[in-house]
Structures are given as structure tokens and as C-alpha cells.
């Protein structure tokens, strides 16, 4: 595949007579940002001194029903997808830098960990945070825009007590880095993500390579982990649905405690869909706690012996029911990988302690890319904000702004313009044998 086929969503932002030396390719200072202040009443509302953030988008999403991705993907089975041009209708109006900011939606769990005196209880809170950080992906089948090298995103949340900055720090491979910190010095949360996407015929699998690090400064503790795999099913035929699977190991480097979480694949009959099960062990590998639940709903913790006893009782009851097995309803042999029927919500075992419960989504979420309330606010451009934002900030991208405002034709034109500018910048750098670097 040659360079002309490579796919990037963002603009260089530099006119032809400007020097590229020492500047970010992602500058959007020449971009037309579509003003949506009419749609947001043109003012920033406050309540008790805290700014109220928007809870809806300017326009509902465009229907994807009349578009087929098969013509694009049929030659890409088993290949990495970052270089494949996708129609804008399959995007969502956020940059990937904004998407990873959604890790911070349940920051209260980090604050809780900071306040706890027991290291195992802190690990429970950190484990709940690690699960909550991927919960926003539930039903999020739109592809975020690929950031350009040097593109940035900044977020200050006084109400939740943190600030965050993220940047696209590498081109090949595409690596996004983020750094968040408590406004009162309680924690630092940082990491880098290299999302590898592959098409497997009926599904697209995302492998989020990269390490996540959480530092609880008051306790002198450092935790690290990686995220599970994410798979979008039925990209060709049928209803899109998402599952996450794989083993996530959270290590407390200060105490040697470890939490091992198994994000279970749904299996043939879908019994394990969305389920997460794991345990916390100390440095001598003694199991101290079991964690269970669903990444789409809630997580609980309990004593490991009581959990195993309950599991044995469940297996005994199931074996009696399976004397005359029948094929579950909803299983068929068509070409679509139908999403299994979601079974009962998490059955809470007596003696369990609730660690986390997912925030409910707004009623209009399905019409707005299945965004959470937190996601709805991430691309909000308030009056006066443009004057203080870095010219590389995602909020200034004209293609994302046009898509958010419902102008798909303009969004597509901007996307094509940005792609062409990016290709041109790469060729110029290659000709001069230059490597991009920060100022």
C-alpha cells in the first residue's frame, strides 16, 4: 500500500509559504470553525459557581443504514486498518484524543482510592476505575477521528478536581499520550495508547496497545495496567454490537498486590456477554478478594471463599437444569454474528460490596452516537474559548465541528481537504529527510 492510500483525518494548518520548522502539523489556526453558539444559547450557564456543561449535541447523528462498508473492507481481511480511508458516515464527532479522555468520567473512584487507608481497598477502587474507564465503549460503534501528529486536547474540570492534556506524539505507529493530574496534588494519571485495528471478515478488532499508569501520591503507590481487546461485530451485515475480552492485570508496584480481571468473551450462547471476573492477591499470591460484575453495569467485591462456595452451588443447580439441553432462542445460522440476548443483570451474591455502578445515559443518547453525558461535553466550544485554546486543539477541527452540527457534506469536504494536506506535508518532509519534533 503506497503513501497516497494512507488515511489521516486532520489538517496541517500551515499555508504553503509558512515554515514547518518547530511547529505542529496539527495547527488548525487556518481552519474555519463552524459556530454553534446559536445552538447552545451563546452563553455559559453557571450553577453554584460550577459551569454547567451541555448534555446534548447540536444535531442528531446521520443514519448509516444506506451505507455499506463491505466495498472498502473486503480487501482488508487480517490487515491493520489505520491506513484505510473510511467514509465519514462511519465516524463519530470526536477525535481519538477526546475518546481517551473518557477514561476520566468516573474520576470519583480515583479520589475514593486516595482517601482509603487500606491498600486492598485502594486496589478495589483502582480496579473499579479500570473497568469504568472502558464502560463508555458500550454501543459506541462510531470510529473517532484519527488525530494528526501534534494535535492536542486540554480539559479542566474544577468540579471533578483534575486537569488533563493529551497529544498525538507519534505518526507511525500512531500513538496518543495523555496526562491528567489532581488539582490538589492527590494523583497523577497518565499513559499512551497505540490502537491497532484489524478486520476479520465480520468484525473489527481493536487492540489498545500501551500502558496505563496511576500514581496515588499521598500513599506513594504506582499502579499500571493495559486495557482489554474491543471487538465490533457485524460490520458487514446485521446490527452492530460490541464486546470486550482479555485479561487485565493491575499491579501495585509499591506493595506487590495484583488484581487480575478476566473480561470474558460472550461464547457460543452468549452467557458470558459483558461479564468480568477476577481477584486481588498479595505479593505472596494469596487471594484476598474476588471482584465480579459486568463492564456495562456494575462491579462488586466479596470474600473469595464465599464466592467459590456460591459458584459450586450454582454449578450444581445448572447441572440439574441441563439434563435435556435445548438450543437457546435467538441462535440461527445466518451470515450475521447476532448479538446474544442480554441475560439477567448481575446476580448479586449476599455479602458483596458495591464498587462501581455505571452512570445512566441520557434518553436521547441513541440519536447522538450513543454518547454519555460526559462525552456530549467534550467537543463543546464555548464563547471566548477559541482565543485561549492552543491552535492544535481538537475542538478547532473543522471536519469534526461540521459533523457535530449535522453538516455531513461540509464535514466530508473538510475531511478530504485535511487528508490531502496531510499527505502533502508527509511528502515534503520525506523529500527533505526531516523528522518531526516538538518545539
UniProtKB/TrEMBL annotation:
| Family matches, as InterPro entries | OSBP_sf, Oxysterol-bd, Oxysterol-bd_CS
Keyword annotations from UniProtKB, A to Z: Lipid transport, Lipid-binding, Transport
- Where do the TM regions start and end? none
Recorded coiled-coil stretches: none
Picking any one GO biological process from the record gives: lipid transport
A family per Pfam: Oxysterol_BP
- List the residue ranges of the region (Disordered): 310-339, 401-439
GO CC annotations on file: cytosol; perinuclear endoplasmic reticulum; plasma membrane
Q: A Gene Ontology molecular-function term? A: cholesterol binding
Residue ranges annotated as compositionally biased, kind Basic and acidic residues, are 310-326
The family classification in the record reads: Belongs to the OSBP family.
Name of the protein in question: Oxysterol-binding protein
Amino acid at each position: 500500500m503506497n503513501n497516497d492510500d494512507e488515511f489521516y483525518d486532520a489538517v496541517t494548518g500551515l499555508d504553503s509559504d509558512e515554515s514547518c520548522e518547530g511547529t505542529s502539523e496539527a495547527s488548525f489556526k487556518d481552519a474555519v470553525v463552524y459556530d454553534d453558539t446559536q445552538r447552545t444559547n451563546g452563553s455559559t450557564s453557571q450553577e453554584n459557581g460550577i459551569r454547567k456543561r451541555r448534555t446534548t449535541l447540536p444535531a442528531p447523528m446521520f443514519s448509516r443504514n444506506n451505507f455499506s462498508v463491505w466495498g472498502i473492507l473486503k480487501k482488508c481481511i487480517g490487515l491493520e486498518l489505520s491506513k484505510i480511508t473510511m467514509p465519514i458516515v462511519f465516524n463519530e464527532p470526536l477525535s481519538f484524543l477526546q475518546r481517551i479522555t473518557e477514561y476520566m468520567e468516573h474520576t470519583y473512584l480515583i479520589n475514593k482510592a486516595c482517601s482509603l487507608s487500606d491498600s486492598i481497598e485502594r486496589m478495589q477502587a483502582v480496579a473499579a476505575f479500570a473497568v469504568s474507564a472502558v464502560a463508555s465503549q458500550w454501543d459506541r460503534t462510531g470510529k473517532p477521528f484519527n488525530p494528526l501528529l501534534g494535535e492536542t486536547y486540554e480539559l479542566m474540570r474544577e468540579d471533578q478536581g483534575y486537569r488533563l492534556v493529551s497529544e498525538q506524539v507519534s505518526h507511525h505507529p500512531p500513538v496518543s499520550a495523555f496526562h491528567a493530574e489532581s488539582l490538589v496534588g492527590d494523583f497523577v494519571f497518565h499513559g499512551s495508547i497505540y490502537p491497532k485495528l484489524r478486520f476479520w471478515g465480520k468484525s473489527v478488532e481493536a487492540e489498545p496497545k500501551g500502558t496505563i499508569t496511576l500514581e496515588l501520591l499521598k500513599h506513594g503507590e504506582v499502579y499500571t495496567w493495559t486495557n482489554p481487546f474491543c471487538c465490533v461485530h457485524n460490520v458487514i451485515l446485521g446490527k452492530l454490537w460490541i464486546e470486550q475480552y482479555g485479561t487485565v492485570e493491575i499491579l501495585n508496584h509499591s506493595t506487590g498486590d495484583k488484581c487480575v480481571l478476566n473480561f470474558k468473551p460472550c461464547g457460543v450462547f452468549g452467557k458470558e456477554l459483558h461479564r468480568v471476573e477476577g481477584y486481588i492477591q498479595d505479593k505472596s499470591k494469596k487471594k484476598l478478594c474476588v471482584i465480579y460484575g459486568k463492564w456495562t453495569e456494575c462491579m462488586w467485591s466479596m470474600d473469595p471463599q464465599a464466592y467459590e462456595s456460591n459458584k459450586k452451588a450454582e454449578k450444581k443447580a445448572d447441572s440439574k437444569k441441563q439434563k435435556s439441553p435445548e438450543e437457546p432462542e435467538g441462535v440461527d445460522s445466518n451470515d450475521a454474528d447476532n448479538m446474544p440476548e442480554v441475560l439477567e443483570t448481575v446476580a448479586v451474591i449476599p455479602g458483596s460490596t458495591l464498587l462501581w455502578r455505571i452512570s445512566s445515559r441520557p434518553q436521547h443518547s441513541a440519536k447522538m452516537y450513543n454518547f454519555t453525558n460526559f462525552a456530549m461535553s467534550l467537543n463543546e466550544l464555548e464563547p471566548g474559548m477559541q482565543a485561549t485554546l492552543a491552535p492544535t486543539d481538537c475542538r478547532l477541527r473543522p471536519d469534526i465541528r461540521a459533523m457535530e452540527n449535522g453538516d455531513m457534506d461540509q464535514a466530508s469536504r473538510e475531511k478530504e481537504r485535511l487528508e490531502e494536506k496531510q499527505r502533502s506535508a508527509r511528502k515534503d518532509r520525506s523529500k527533505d529527510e526531516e523528522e518531526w519534533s516538538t518545539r
